Amino acid sequence: MIMQETTHNKEEISGLRHMSRWAFDESHAKIGFSISHFGISETEGKFTKFRGEVITGEPDFSDAQIILSIDASSINTEDTQRDNHLKSPDFFDAENYPEIQFKSKSIESAGKNIFILTGDLTMHGIMREVQLDAMYRGTVVDPFQNTKAGFKVNGVIDRTQFGLLWTGTLAAGGLLVGHNVHLDINLELLKIQEAS
Fold first, then answer.
1. What share of the chain is helix, strand, coil (3-state, %, to 5)?
2. Are 195 and 21 in contact (CB under 8 A)?
3. Tens digit of pLDDT for each residue in 134-185?
């Protein structure tokens, strides 16, 4: 699947001179998650295809504007049968809703290099505001003279709020699949240019 280019339009970046634009480095990043299985363990997975950009003017990214688009069909839980079920109408319905999108609305300091990131998450055709915990892990210049920045992002979302309602039940009445999805995201950003 070829994903559409995800960029800020001219209105969104007006007035942002001297700010930097960063891309997500897919080869050094993970959009991971875990969810309760049978109520006694957790199933883990990740999305392997995503793209987006970050625009910021502050060294610690405290004014960052973020857009992220994830290919729903790239879900990988290391089980082909389960992955196909997750792509089906029971869950993501990836054929009709091919992208999961996040667009930041605000970022607030919660301590040194710790932030509360608020934004709109659109999944399965439904948009909800979510809050995530973000930790800035620093900026370096790699051996190839590329400027990189790292982040750790965590949070919990209720999948049923996005219309992912399938659960299944055990004989004793427990859920096969939990409602709460725990996000475990590691991001490496690549500085690509100064925003004009």
1. 10, 55, 35
2. yes
3. 999 999 999 989 999 999 999 999 999 999 987 765 555 555 788 899 999 9
Q: Are 99 and 72 in contact (CB under 8 A)?
A: yes
Report the distance separating Cα 9 and Cα 12, nearest Å.
5
Residue 7 domain-assigned? Answer: no
Hunting for tokens 């970050």 — which residue is that? 54
Report yes or no on 157 lying in a domain: yes
pTM: 0.83
Which stretches of 38-165 are assigned E, i.e. beta strand? 41-47, 50-56, 65-71, 75-76, 99-109, 114-123, 126-141, 147-158
Domain count, the chain: 1
The CATH number linked to 47 is 2.40.128.110
